[in-house]
Design brief:
The chain is of the alpha+beta class. The protein has two domains: about 90 residues, D-Amino Acid Oxidase, Chain A, domain 2; about 60 residues, no CATH class. It is built from three helices and eight strands, in the order E-E-E-E-E-H-E-E-E-H-H. Strands 1, 2, 3, 4, 5 and 6 form a six-stranded antiparallel sheet that branches. About 20% of the residues are buried. Bound molecules: flavin-adenine dinucleotide (FAD).
Length: about 170
Amino acid sequence: MLSGVEKLGLQPFRRTAAIVDVERPLRPGTPMVAAADDTYYFRREGEQVLISPSETVPSGPEDARPRPGDVEELVVRLNSITSLGIRSVAKAWTGLRTEAADGVPVVGFDAEAPGFYWLAGQGGYGFQTSSAIAELAAAEILGSGTVGTAPGISPASRTPRELAAARWSIRR
Ligand SMILES: Cc1cc2nc3c(=O)[nH]c(=O)nc-3n(C[C@H](O)[C@H](O)[C@H](O)COP(=O)(O)OP(=O)(O)OC[C@H]3O[C@@H](n4cnc5c(N)ncnc54)[C@H](O)[C@@H]3O)c2cc1C
């Protein structure tokens, strides 16, 4: 690492999603549907539907792209177990959801490198948590102290050795 700080062992995991055209669009207010065994989810996206195979596959750092067959297999499956009637895939993409071993976001000053601030490892929750975490980070970096530090998320209490000993606990 160019910064010289000790690595925390953050691990990226692949996750694919697609927007599909359907014969029977979901009504407004239809809740998101997620498989109990975590093998897919889908939710309304206007007249279209967002689908995902919910994969959590370890990856190196890369410009991730959908693997051939992943979305197509999910379309076949959803068409066999729902009445959506998926006709075509409008777009599909894959991203990396990066996590620390304990699954908790890494936010705060490094335990040993003065002035180095971590804001990483948000896993599958980065959109929804970004505004609150950014507020926390800004308050800590500026030293304004208007936001309390959330217990457990600071790297100062999670050294590389402690994280290496932690089990990979999040698989969503
Ligand atoms: C399919 C999918 C569905 C998701 N659904 C949700 C959801 O419903 N709700 C939710 O809250 N979160 C969701 N997430 C998670 C969310 O996308 C992440 O938590 C969030 O994007 C993390 O933000 P980030 O800025 O830390 O990292 P990223 O968004 O990954 O941004 C990192 C950036 O750094 C760049 N980069 C990497 N390495 C280098 C380098 N060496 N040099 C220069 N640039 C580099 C990358 O290109 C990228 O632009 C989903 C993720 C995926 C993949």
